[in-house]
Design a protein that fits this description.
The chain is mainly alpha-helical and about 625 residues long. It has 25 helices and two strands. The protein has a two-stranded antiparallel sheet.
Length: about 625
Amino acid sequence: MSNLPIKPNNLCDNALFVTICAVIVLLPIFHLEELRDYVKTGNFIIFLILLAVGTSVLFLRAVFENQIDFHLKKVDAWMLSISAYLALNHYLGSYAKSLSINTEELLCLGVFYFFLRALPDIYKSGLLTSVMVSGLIQGFLGLLQYFALFHSNHKLFSVTGSFANPGPFGGYIAIVACLAANLLIYRLRFRNIAATLSQRKKTFFLLIGTLIITVPVIVLSESRSAVFAFLASLIFTGIFYIAFRSKKIKKNWYLRPFSLVMASTLFLIMAGIILYRININSGNGRILIWKISLKIIGKNPLFGVGFDNFRSQYMNFQENYFRNNGTMSEKMVASNITSAFNEVLQFIAENGFVGLSLLSLFVLIIPWRKITDRQKALMISYLSGIVAVIVFSLFSYPGEILPIKIIIIVMLSLIAGIGRKESVYKVKVKNTFMAKSVISLIAVSFLYISTTRAWLYYSNFEKWKIAISDYRIRSYSESLEGFEKVYPFFNSDGLFLTSYGKILSISGQHDKAIDILQDASHYLNSNLVQTTIGDSYKAKRLYQKAEQAYLKASYMVPSQFYAKYLLAKLYQEWGKKTEAALIANEIISMPIKISSPAVREMRLEMSEYLKNK
């Protein structure tokens, strides 16, 4: 195949195909429950191991070929350029110039894309079958959970599939359902999906079965974003198909993007209004997050704050916002935030308009290439999955979910394989001893890196979970020992540093706690980080610094009582009776967001203080 980086070899191609299918089907359902954050971490470790297997297969395939042909298409060049930009932008924007797990995932997804592009066209229908099978497995899990025949991964929601909560699960199911619906609509036009009548029947029943299982589960997941993503994708398909078929639009080519943009805008406005009305408090919370995200963009318009650095910056902007303004309704919905719940806004905030420009090349490269009507129908089906992801991402966080990113890469690779076999870069290399040596060096290096990283992630996340368990049973010395062992690996992980700093503060190691927590604030700032910093400064009788930390915490999440309570206690100890009384009055008059015994005790204590002052 002229568009394949390496010429096919049957045995190795079969092995590569099996490995890719294992990534698609097995990765979402394999968890390592002995690890901290076992769903996300377990997914990534399995991904690293399967990539190591795929690398071994490609290495063998390359070694036994007489000549290596490498062809780079425009879409491939786009994928390489955007991946390189995101990785570099993260590195330059991060506090410690280190790679996060999401950045490592990004690089690994680039390798996975190369695997997919190296796969001959005869296997492409098998990839779609794997996606459908994965959707069926998740659908069955969801149904079993709904009827209480299988455990859920979330305490508050009964239907989560193999995901950590129902939001990503619903999004995953919606994407698969969109693909199934569109492939079913156009199945008679896809020669690559089924070459014989028997195969067409099998394909028909697979797609029908997928829809029967997945569509009800989308509703059962209670994910409104997933429902709208599914509906939006179907509407997009109809509009796009009409746009391709319309003679007027074909003649006036500029009407095609215009019609798509107008229809999409109207649908999204309607969807947004409905989503807002269903849960007004949740809607107000999202609006606040988007409002502050726009402030991040305004301050970092060109390159953003760096890929995967949104979580390190957002709470600083939220604190500054409430320090200077903010309505009572906004204060009541504010909380500790790590995601914008809108991937478009978050992408611009992290990567700036330079990154957005690179991403926008996709719109220019993909849909308006010169392809046949049969290829157009096939491409529309693949794009329907991408549209479902985009709509879902406007209200959720699919960029954090590896199985969803896997499907996106599969769809992009299938889209890249459609159309003319032209390449922007071609290389033909005779497989000499020197070439084999270079290939061996690259393969061995990646094998070493992937297997080593997989083991490091496994062993360190396991120790972290043990340390957390010791902390929960108040075995602080054992917990501290565990945290110290894994600190070199997690020294740029904000969540780890927060937990480590908290235990250090409780254990009385205040100098070290302050250093660790100040590092944590660069990666994942929160009101917990600031209140703990305040506690350690207070213990050292550095009252002014403690005051600054408590004030930061109170502005970060104004509706929470605890930071203000700690501030009032600080003023009492400091001898500032006027300030203590002001904060005590504020605590008593604050509206209660969520009533609890702790809140009632704090209010009662402040009332007693004012009476006895």
